[in-house]
TrEMBL record:
Organism: Hymenobacter ginkgonis
Signal peptide: none
Xref: SUPFAM superfamilies: Thioesterase/thiol ester dehydrase-isomerase
InterPro entries in the record: 4-hydroxybenzoyl-CoA_TE (IPR050563), HotDog_dom_sf (IPR029069)
Entry's Gene Ontology molecular function annotations: fatty acyl-CoA hydrolase activity
Family annotation (Pfam families): 4HBT_2
Record's protein name: Thioesterase
Transmembrane parts of this sequence: none
Length: 135
């Protein structure tokens, strides 16, 4: 199921042109993704216990509308692809302006890494289920 979170755009997220800098879009998407996983029971402590973690292979951002300091944005993430065992996944983040217009999309392709073996791994069934494709 999609998950969304609202954020204020702070001074630190702005570039010299007065709008949100390119890397801030990725930062907001990553924060939403981590909070989403935590809400499903997979916070940083749980990942440490499982000895696995998420990694990204690709991150692509499409910019559509400017976002300025002081604005509120809403970041919604949803799984748009992946393998049946949950070992690989694609998440699309849509970043909305306060008026509902889409400001950007951030799409990431990722997988899970075994932190001890430093190899890709299959996640536990409950994590795979939490990231089941929702198309």
């Amino acid at each position: 199921m999609p998950h969304s979170q609202t954020y204020p755009v702070r001074w630190a997220e702005l570039d010299p042109n007065g709008h949100m800098r390119h890397s801030a879009y990725a930062d907001f998407a990553a924060d939403q993704r981590v909070n989403w996983l935590a809400s499903a029971g997979f916070d940083i402590r749980r990942f440490a216990e499982l000895r696995i973690g998420p990694i990204l292979f690709r991150e692509e951002t499409k910019y559509l509308k400017e976002v300025h300091g002081g604005e509120q944005i809403r970041v919604e993430g949803r799984v748009t692809g992946g393998t049946p065992d949950g070992s690989r996944w694609t998440i699309e983040h849509t970043i909305y302006k306060a008026d509902g217009r889409v400001a950007a999309t951030v799409t990431v392709d990722g997988a899970w890494i075994d932190l001890d073996r430093r190899k890709l791994t299959v996640p536990p069934a409950e994590l795979a289920q939490a990231l089941a494709v929702e198309v």
